[in-house]
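Troubleshooting log. The previous run stalled partway through. Resubmitting the same two chains, unchanged.
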Amino acid sequence: MTGELSGRAAIAGLGITEMGKVYGRSAAEFAVEAVTLAAADAGLDLADIDGLLINPGVGGDIGLPLHTALGLRELRLLTEMQGFGSSADGMVQYAALAVHAGMADVVVCVYADAPLREDRGAGATYTGAGRRATGVDALPAAAGLRSAPAKYALAARRHMERYGTTSEQLGAVALAARQWAALNDRAQMKDRPLTLEDHQSSRMVADPLRLYDCCLVSNGGIAVVVTSAERARALRRPPVYVLGWGQGHPGYPMSRGSTFGLVTGAAISGPAALKMAGLTLADVDVREIYDCFTYTTLVTLEDYGFCAKGEGGEFVASGAIAPGGSHPTNTGGGQLSSYYMWGMTPLSEGVIQARGDGGVRQAPKADVVLVSGNGGVLDHHATLLLSPHAAT
Amino acid sequence: MAPLPISRDERSAAFFDAAAQGTLLLRWSPATGAYLPPTAHIDPSAPLSPLEWRPVAGTGEIVTWTVLPPGGDVVALVELAEGPWLTVAVRGVAPTALHEGYQVRIGFERPEGGEAVPVALPR
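Second attempt completed without errors. Output:
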């Protein structure tokens, strides 16, 4: 049975700024441009916006003042939202609820970030440097666990130990992403082919994760417009209906029995989204999965059930997720090879695919697109099921 | 690489006092008898019952680990015999020898200017 709210809201606009090594602009400037582009894409004036959801990232460079920067007056809904990498999908969910509840008619969800600077490398971003080490909460940092790659390396190594997943199989995820990126003009790595030898010889960032197991760092901003299905049908672009959604926050205990590294929140959010949409996994044509690391794609595919638990390595190495494969995944190149905009990376490509705007990389069938966000160290998960067709 | 110097706060004072003496403390729930990680605020099975600190033997096994360049430092999640996990630096073990279930015992290091912190040593 389909959930009451399935297909009642739609994404009517998408705004993507210039992306990647774009210097000299602040996150706030990117955010303003992304919102402006999203409204224009929908055929709306900024004055039509009456709700704004802002994901401030971890830098805190954008936030509530964004509405005055945009000149938005008398908003009926405004807040910052935080679910780390699951924020984008979460914001669309709350926007859909707000529209249904009548709190607002046109809600824009936005994320922007500008961590890259001309005078320093990408590795100098997101280090968490400067945080003070105090008390027992600081024991992991004191032990040397201070970077996102190191934390995800613990998760990846556990999966490898338990299921026999290999570095070459992680490499297959990187290669598939790079092959998709070659078809995407927006991808930072469009013209940078990658071989398995390149992957295997790339420097170790945090064993078992090599350089090409890690996502990019990007400056830019992305926004989407969420409104009712009825209103979306009257706007400029074809609606992308939100058929189903779910969230999953495992709350891994730091003790015996924890499934950290083995099972993610997608095992909760995926079935919830499918149930709401009245769909099964076999109905999903395209997957846009948060890929901060190659391992993240692999374990998330298992948790949605696209392959059995522990068989993600063989699944990705079979070519299933690459262009021409049976399970097109991260069709824009993902965070590994296109651009890193937290959950807006998979969400933006999901909208592009559901609209049929993918050009040479358009998946053969995109009636149901699964969009997946992941935040923290596998701590937060959110799922959207998008479609060019209204729920029936 | 020496551990990052860490300073105490009110909540962690007992933990670091014991660590300076070479003793590992965990949180313990009198209501259920369960041991909990040092970071625990409550026992979710008995949320209104205050926790105590209890010394433990400090034996455990590796759950997972990472090796960090440039020095090859090893950081691991260790599952203690009592159940809780600790995130610790591993000393005296070649990374190639590590595997899930590798047996370790907890020792302590005291970096200059900081409190004593637990590390994992081969058992």
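Takeaways: Chain A touches chain B through 36 residues (CB under 8 Å). The domain at 9-117+218-226 of chain A is CATH 3.40.47.10 (Peroxisomal Thiolase; Chain A, domain 1).
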